[in-house]
Amino acid sequence: MATSYEGYKSPLSSRYASKEMQFQFSEQNKFSTWRKLWIWLAEAEKQLGLEITDAQIEEMKKNIENIDFPAAAAEERLTRHDVMAHVHVFAKQCPLAAPIIHLGATSCYVGDNTDLIVLRNSLDLLLPRVASVIFCLKNFAESHKSLPTLGFTHLQPAQLTTVGKRACLWIHDLLMDERALRRCRDDLRFRGVKGTTGTQASFMQLFNGDGEKVRALDFLVTKLAGFEKPYAVTGQTYSRKVDVEILGALSSLGTSIHKMCSDLRILASRKEVEEPFESTQIGSSAMPYKRNPMRSERCCALARHMITVYSNAANTHATQWLERTLDDSANRRLSLSESFLSADAALLTLLNISQGLVVYPKVIERHIAQELPFMSTENIIMAMVKAGGDRQICHEKIRVLSHEAGAQVKQLGKDNDLVERVRNDAYFAPIIDQLETILDAKTFTGRASDQVTEFLAEEVEPVLSNYKEALKNMETVTLTI
Q1: What is the pLDDT of residues 129-169, one digit of tens each?
Q2: Coil vs helix vs strand at 357
Q3: How far apart are CA 91 and CA 99, in angstroms?
Q4: CATH superfamily of 107-276+289-360+460-472
Q5: Alpha helices of 144-160 — where are they, by DSSP H?
Q6: Strand pairing partners for 153?
Q7: Which of 268, 319, 326, 361 could form a disulfide with 293 if both were Cys (CB 3.0 to 4.6 A apart)?
């Protein structure tokens, strides 16, 4: 006997994405939304004068959630048409309303409009998640805004920054993602009632050529569905350029998540910053001591999928011939759902990470001590010049000592002893009492701390103010797998 373990299951549903996001792309939500759309169409047509009764509408309303999935599947096997299969099943459940179900509409009336409702609701789920991550990182940045750490360019030690300032780089990218997703949400419209090729010809017949009533029908159904405006013109479908914009924003979010989590993986390798690690968590089956950054790795894996799915949307739009071709259908069943489910899963994991980041200041301090002597050479030269020394002579002295210290580090694997070499060279006697100040790591971070304060107040807080309710009710995320 076949079991549920013998068929394919998407890891997005079985392991990663939230129940809320899964519901948006569920069969139950899809087909109950189709029924709502048929009800809204009937209500609007009745309001504009067609012979539709309250009893017919009430009969449909009683069966919105009562979907006979086996019967619909059997009908689809016969008709090879998913919309007509559900029209037939709904009509059998609503015999009184059967004559007016789907009246004047084409398949894309329910298909495309449902997709737009799902896209809207899914964006409404993602945006507070992005804001929650930003909120947690804001608190992290504020707490560590003055903690010096090695900056890196070319993945080589560079001028110091602070832990909080680095976190602000992650926040900056996420702010751009919030803006892009919010614009997609605000710009989203409804397909409305446009007919088979977007001309509304079938509705013109229903309303005896009354174009004003047909236009009113379009706007009335749009309002019933909770949208402000319909798209002014469509072919058989709403333009797949809409999908390009939305999946483009999700792909861009994927790049931000991947960049941040790649940074965390590097920092974890250096033992400077770690993601949460549970007391019972196993890092490696063979190496018990390991604390692998599995959450960040998962985020990177999901983010890569988000990035690549965008090409599906772009290629689908590019190949929509004239008023439409059907080669978008199977592709969009995959690309829309997987983009949002991947984004949802990645953001939940990222929120879990952001709520429990651990910093190891002593390790960071040790790493700074290994590199700061080389970085401080210019300051030592300037201090000597102020004390009356010759810059060129001082430069040569420092150059020789630096190479000697570098050899100790690279060839012998010893600690950087440049400072001790300076202390032991009589030439630098005039500034020996200044060395501690010259080597204070905080003097090498510039305005990093002030930049954090300014950025959080001027750029971050205004965005977070739009999500006060969501942030107030934010819960601690626990990963089940």
Answers
A1: 999 999 999 999 999 999 999 999 999 988 899 999 999 99
A2: coil
A3: 8
A4: Fumarase/aspartase (Central domain) (1.20.200.10)
A5: none
A6: 156
A7: 268
Q: Find out whether 93 and 101 touch, Cβ atoms under 8 Å.
A: no
Question: From the CB of residue 65, how many other CB atoms can be counted at a distance below 10 Å?
Answer: 9
What is the total residue count of the chain?
481
Catalytic positions, please?
154, 284
Contacts of 426 (CB under 8 A, 6+ apart): none
User: Under a CB-based contact definition with an 8 Å cutoff, are residues 163 and 445 in contact?
Assistant: no
Residue-wise pLDDT tens digits, 43-77:
999 999 999 999 999 999 999 999 999 999 999 99
The residue ranges of every structural domain in the chain are 18-100, 107-276+289-360+460-472, 377-438
Q: How far is CA 279 from CA 92, 217, 291, 472, in A?
A: 57, 60, 11, 28
Please answer whether residues 125 and 114 qualify as being in contact, where contact means their C-beta atoms are separated by less than 8 angstroms: no
Q: How confident is the model at residue 84 (pLDDT cuts 50, 70, 90)?
A: very high
CATH topology of domain 18-100: Fumarase C; Chain B, domain 1 (1.10.275)
Domain 377-438, what architecture?
Orthogonal Bundle (1.10)
What is the per-residue DSSP string for 246-288? HHHHHHHHHHHHHHHHHHHHHHHHTTSEE----TT--S-SS-T
The single-letter code of the amino acid at 260 is M
Q: DSSP 3-state assignment of 2?
A: coil
What gap in Å lies between CA 371 and CA 377, rounded to an integer? 11
107-276+289-360+460-472 against 377-438: fold identical: no
By the 8 A CB rule, do 383 and 434 touch?
Answer: yes
What pTM does this model have? 0.90
Q: Given a cut of 80, is residue 344 above it in pLDDT? A: yes
**Residues linked to residue 273 through DSSP beta bridges, in sequence order:** 359
Q: What is the pLDDT of residues 247-265, one digit of tens each?
A: 999 999 999 999 999 999 9
| Rounded alpha-carbon distances, angstroms, from residue 447 to 134, 149, 192, 361, 380 | 22, 14, 53, 20, 21
List phi, psi (to 5°) of 368. Answer: -65, -45
